[in-house]
Known about the structure:
Blueprint: H1 9-20, H2 23-44, H3 50-66, H4 69-86
Amino acid sequence: MDNLDHIPPGDRLFALESLKHSIGWALYLAELQRRIRSIEERALDPETDDETTRVLKHARRFLAKDHTPSKIIDQLITAARNEARREPSLSR
Length: 92
């Protein structure tokens, strides 16, 4: 589902804020951290070839820099909040 334009900005904001505080989100973050640790362990495994180690370390740095789920959801909430503010009021 690439095009989410059909979802009103206020609904997007509500959904994202609800997600951020949900148990499902906490479970997702815990599982993601487990998988990232698995990547780190594989990269540090002496039996892993050098090229794979390099790629895994690069991927880990990429994710840690600006692509953590918390940063992404905060960016989505900010964008939805800004868009909701620009949306004309239904009471006018």
